[in-house]
Amino acid sequence: MTVFIYDRTFDGLLTAVFDAYFRKTFPDALLSDGDSLPLFCSETHTVITDEEKAMRVWRGLQKKISRSALNCLTQSWLSELPEVGMLLFRYIRKAIDSPRSIETNFADPDVLELAQIWKKVDWERTRMLQFVRFQKAADGTFFAVFDPQYNALPLTIEHFKDRFADQKWVIYDMKRRYGFYYDLQEVVEISFEDGSREAHLITGMLDESLMDEDEKLFQQLWKTYFKAISIKERANPRKHKQDMPVRYWKYLTEKQADLAFTLTYRMFVGVPQRTD
């Protein structure tokens, strides 16, 4: 059994593909430093990430598959699933070796699985566009937090940059502890120091002392509007939770009261406190 050890970056994965073809040895597993080796491992190779090697593989892929399939590769990588590295390796190898494009060959289990992963990541991207709620801070910056199931934040940045081009904003991924800041000119990646216990990085809600003086009023107006347009006779809680899963409610100004009621009810009747 052959194992390649790499740094779990996308460039590292592409470098592993280059090394495999150069060595004419293809891995049965991709691991990172610190992972336990399989019991019957007969050979290991440590991949040193090389941008030039990665680009050579990428340029080769551009000749074999479409731009949408290339986007599928990079977007699926953001799923961060444990098996995605080896899945992408097999897909890339098949794409390179096949005399015709494999991207629509859903009879191939790797092609099908990759398409399914891409769909999940893209759905998380869509949910972020739907459910991110900004709060205006005292310095005029609009602040929003999220903890998406998949690392979908980078896929949304161009949308927010275009949509809110005249506003300074911060969107922060609490789960992965990084985010992006837009200063009206460019978007830069940011990260708050490890161990930060700022309340807004835990709850996602700015403290009133950090809010713009009108933010509380706008939040109340939004809640009033949301309540006013609701039609009680057409209420369908099950469908509502399908379209707007409970795990997103903590970010939604209009759902704070419903979330508090749901959690209190579950505690009272002994229902496990799930948020999905």
Describe the structure.
Residues 83-254 form the DUF4130 domain. This protein folds into 3 domains: 2-124, no CATH class; 133-212, no CATH class; 214-276, no CATH class. The protein is 42% helix and 12% strand. The protein has 9 helices and 8 strands. The chain has a 5-stranded mixed beta sheet with strand order 4-5-6-7-8, with no helix packed on it. The chain has a 3-stranded parallel beta sheet with strand order 2-1-3, with no helix packed on it. α3 (67-77) crosses α5 (109-131). 23% of the residues are buried. The model is unreliable at 260-276 (pLDDT under 50).
Poorly predicted runs: 260-276
| Mean pLDDT metric | 87
Strand content: 5-15%
Number of E-state strands: 8
Helical/strand content category: alpha/beta
- Determine the N-to-C terminus distance: 39 Å
Radius of gyration: 23 Å
Based on Cα principal axes, name the global outline: elongated
Count of folded domains = 3
Largest sheet: 5 strands, mixed
| DSSP helix fraction | 40-55%
Strand order of the largest sheet: 4-5-6-7-8
Please work out how many helical segments DSSP would assign: 9
Order of helices and strands: EHEEHHHHEEHEEEHHH
Blueprint (SSEs and pairs):
Elements: E1 2-5, H1 10-23, E2 29-31, E3 43-46, H2 51-62, H3 67-77, H4 84-97, H5 109-131, E4 135-136, E5 142-146, H6 157-163, E6 169-173, E7 178-182, E8 187-190, H7 215-229, H8 237-243, H9 256-269
Parallel strand pairs: 1-2, 1-3, 5-6
Antiparallel strand pairs: 4-5, 6-7, 7-8
Helix pairs in contact: 1-2, 1-4, 3-5, 4-5
Protein name: Uracil-DNA glycosylase
Pfam families: DUF4130
Domain DUF4130: 83-254
